[in-house]
């Protein structure tokens, strides 16, 4: 069985675009270019759209928090852990089912689950997909004073 789309989606979008911008884009694409020029053009287009084209890495190449991410306070840590668990489910569904990658039987399932868990937590830690921010915005966690052994309340 095959499908026959009603039209060429790419051409429909090109026809709906502003003719001047379409011609400009077509001329840029038809010219052989320098990869650095393409990268700078992509950076410029991303900045215009309010996006970033680089991953925030520290000196060791480890992902760090995103600059435009509203920094979640330490009190939002349960929300971040929850977001990590949700992302873990997404990642685990995307990982290959091949036994040659993770091993056979129960051990392979455990390795796959552990990998998905770590990936999910790291993604959530570096900005995630916004679940923790939305939960923190709608239900902020306020630190409660704890009582010490002397019965005096102190802030944690």
Automatic annotation (TrEMBL):
Mark out the compositionally biased spans (Polar residues).
144-156
Positions of the Flagellar protein FlgJ N-terminal domain: 96-136
Q: Which InterPro entries match?
A: Flagellar_prot_FlgJ_N
Start and end residues of each stretch annotated as Disordered: 137-156
Q: Mind telling me which Pfam families this protein's record contains?
A: Rod-binding (PF10135)
- Name of this chain's protein: Rod-binding protein
